[in-house]
Amino acid sequence: MTTVSAQPGRALKEQQQFVVPANKAYAEPFTPGDPGVSIPVGYPESRGSISRWRNKEKRVTWVVYQKPGNYDLYFDNQVAAGKKLRFKLDVSGCYPQLGLKPVHRDLVFKGTGQKDTLYGLRVKIPAEGYYRYTLTPLTDPEGAITISSLLFRTTAADGWVNFINYQSTPSVHLSFSSTEPTTKSYNWLYEEILVPEGADPLYTYYMSLGFYRGYLGIQTNTPTERRVLFSVWDSKDAEKDSSITKADFVSLVDKGAATTVNAFGGEGTGGQSYVKGANWKTGKPVKFLMNVLPQENNTVVLSAWYQVADEGWNYIASWRAPHEKRFFDGFYSFIENYGYTNGQLRREAYYYNAWGRESATDKWVNFNKVRFSNTDGKRGQRVDYEQGVSPKYPDRFYMASGGYTPTIKTKNEMPVLQTPPFPDLKKFEARVAEALKNEGRQNIRK
Fold first, then answer.
1. Could you tell me how far CA 178 lies from the centroid of its own chain?
2. Residue 358: other Cβ atoms inside 10 A
3. What tens digit of pLDDT does each residue of 191-204 get?
4. Residue 300 CB: number of other CB atoms within 10 A?
5. What percent of the chain stands above pLDDT 90?
6. Can you tell me whether residue 370 is helix, strand or coil?
7. pTM to 2 decimals?
8. Of 6-10, 169-173, 222-226, 396-400, which range is least confident?
9. Judging by beta carbons within 10 Å of its beta carbon (0-12, 13-18, 19+), is residue 341 exposed, middle or buried?
10. Domains observed in the chain
């Protein structure tokens, strides 16, 4: 933020100026691999220009967080000499509660081949929150324009325009527990997820069962591919800990016929198993089941299954985790955007019918209480998330992330369910026994 003198023709008042780097923007509509305009992906410290805008069907949207006041908007730009490019500028609040009537104006960027600053419009911001500023080409931009920054100027003493550091979304988490008496020692975990229609943007991981050595859930990977993913961490991080030995790596025990396995890194190291043709759908429940079986050699065998709607259970894999003897003590769930560039799209899922079976008593315990957590959450940054008991379904927890909506947190507890998910687990126990017989036939590391 800097202080500048007033605009020509206006009363001389001290103005505050807020600079928004042009690359803190989104190309819309979002098309993976074909943005139609170059917007360098950046982390908080990065600054970059928008360039190579060659697709007339692509608009560019900036979302900023503003306090009330009158703001004059300018664009720092450079247009090829002799070009005259027309755009429509639209300004709106990201949600109705802000009370801003949408504002529109046509702009003409005239090319001199030199750096220039174009005045956009004056907008009166009525309430603190997220606002969208969108440029839509009215003529072919021809790759002839570069925009380096947006400038907001105001005489409001407490004016504030804050650009969003991350074009991703905040990650949101629910940690599950029970209000019932329990040993907090479970050998089986169970939960269901349902993603509503339209709440499944690309690059979303809806993690269902997160435990002390890994996690299990579903992903939207490409426009045509959806996966179920089950990962288990090594005892040490092979990328950071030079003391790691072969005995610290997880090993594959067995896997389903449709399962792909490999080693992974970047967030700790370990073994990854996934089903590419899982074919889960929005509006349909996906059920998850996990087992932990401690072994005498200070390892545990971790096994996972999933079921789409009521189409039958699918075995994913079993992994042996070394230097471990714990049962599950509960689990957590989260929503994560791992693709970064489409954080203006909202993700949502219901998490419900959550249970753990006590290892000592075989009693199923319903997890009817959660603890909330999230990443970011700083004022003026990514505070667009929701958590708690669903307003639509009082027997389901839910989470949402992204879309630049207001923060919503509801209740963190609901009534205890009385009907466990399984009368018995014999066929699943038999599959674990079969996996142990098959152990050693495959390896993820050469």
1. 27
2. 17
3. 999 999 999 999 99
4. 23
5. 87
6. strand
7. 0.92
8. 6-10
9. middle
10. 2-163 (2.60.120.260), 172-438 (2.60.120)
